[in-house]
Amino acid sequence: MAEALLKSLSKGRFEVFSAGSRPSGHVHPMALEILKAARLPIEGLRSKSWDEFKDQPMNFVITVCDRAKETCPLWSGQPITAHWSFEDPGKAEGSLEEKSKIFRKVFTEIQTRVRLFAAFPMDKLSRLELENEVRKLAP
Predict the structure, then answer these.
(1) What is the pTM of this model?
(2) Gap between the Cα atoms of 97 and 34, Å rounded
């Protein structure tokens, strides 16, 4: 969800990748439903391992689940890193409606932070200021 949101909200200012330590092999259908409902493009979204990007220089690496924070690899280019902890909606239990409610809640939380991040005046902030601002967005 974060990948689709940042791609859309940043209007091409960022090259955006989303990946995980243990990709499931598919994008959760509820995530796709929420993205479609928000009128965000879903073409090309897929479950990816961060190993796919190990040699890709990064400016920012933002982890969103606690497991990723603990096992996140070192990235080339010394990116600014932050951890924004969100509940893993894919692990939600209960009825279809209860699971959908969790997905919507997490989507809204991610959307709020991504909007703030995308609005940063990147060209006017020092690296240290950027790092501090990105980390302040942590829930």
Answers:
(1) 0.86
(2) 13
